[in-house]
Design a protein that fits this description.
The protein has 9 helices and 13 strands. By secondary structure, the protein is an alpha/beta fold. It folds into 3 domains: about 55 residues, Beta Barrel (OB fold (Dihydrolipoamide Acetyltransferase, E2P)); about 160 residues, P-loop containing nucleotide triphosphate hydrolases (Rossmann fold), CATH 3.40.50; about 60 residues, Orthogonal Bundle (Ribonucleotide Reductase Protein R1, domain 1). The longest helix is centred in the last third of the chain and has 20 residues. The protein is globular, with a radius of gyration of 21 Å. It starts with 7 loop residues before the first strand and ends with a helix. The relative contact order is 0.13. The structure holds guanosine-5'-triphosphate (GTP) and zinc ion. The site of zinc ion has 7 residues, from helix 8. Its EC number is 3.6.1.-. Its main location: cytoplasm. Its cofactor is Zn(2+). InterPro entries: G_CP_dom, NA-bd_OB-fold, P-loop_NTPase, Ribosome_biogen_GTPase_RsgA, RsgA_GTPase_dom. This is Small ribosomal subunit biogenesis GTPase RsgA.
Amino acid sequence: MSRHNDLDIGLVVGAHGRHVMIETPEGRRLIAHPRGKKSVCVVGDRVRWQAAGDEAVIEALEPRRNLLARQDEWRTKSFAANIDLLLVVLAGEPMFSESQLTRALIAAEDAGIAATLLLNKIDLPAAAVARERLKPYREMGVAVVESALKADPAASRRTLAALLAGKTTLVLGPSGMGKSTLINLMVPRADAQVGEISQALNAGRHTTTTTTWYWLDDAKSGALLDSPGFQEFGLMHIAPQRLAELMPDLRTHLGQCRFYNCTHRHEPGCGVRAAAERGEISPNRVRLYEGLWDELEAGQRKG
Ligand SMILES: Nc1nc2c(ncn2[C@@H]2O[C@H](COP(=O)(O)OP(=O)(O)OP(=O)(O)O)[C@@H](O)[C@H]2O)c(=O)[nH]1
Ligand SMILES: [Zn+2]
């Protein structure tokens, strides 16, 4: 037990550098600063804090259930902690990138976070192509739901309300797929909620440099977290040897390779490649695996 257990608890709802905004169980919001040099809080964290004038000092971080992060060659960035669901917003126009999708799913799998894909803009003809590209993902067990956030907001709202109720959901998506439309549809007073946080943290109203926390309803039974940064989804924190087990369609065939340390790239007697040749793994996914392997291995050599 931590010696800080008698302190009040706070939920981190915004972060800008070392400035953090916490919300108390009664709904009061305070600017908070971590004690000491390290800036360890991310949105979604629960912290123990003490008052320091009008502001708060964070004394301890409660244990995290999970943490979704991306890491490039230079640094790690955290999206959020203690997430129930990752919702990836995709569309056929502009066409989503399968590489970005695969990276997000690998990071979620590594963090132990369930993921659902939202295929948006199903009113457009290109949705058929996108639906087809998502087939391998559906087959490997990833949930896919569909919406037309702009063209049919009422139906989309019903679909999403059922999906999001009672959960803390992190929404990610490439630019132009409908992420902002989703937030404005599902979150009452979304602009006011984000404005309050960034103003207090001096971040400026339109610099969404970090994750934003939105309550879905006045009862605060669910929340949406909006994060930028989907475009550069670095996975440098993952060892290449772990990739296949983080890809469900490859994972199914593990344990059938001749060599225990098979990389599933060129070894004879590889169960994964045999499955790919039988058409049981999509060629795109095999290519993505190989590309990621090279990238992560090169990163390991440097590091
Ligand atoms: N046809 C169609 N267009 C949609 C739908 N949902 C959103 N859009 C449009 O797609 C465009 C992008 O939507 P946004 O919500 O701004 O997308 P975003 O992902 O937030 O993009 P950024 O703001 O660039 O990050 C806008 O012009 C929306 O009006 C839909 O269901 N159907
Ligand atoms: Zn193999």
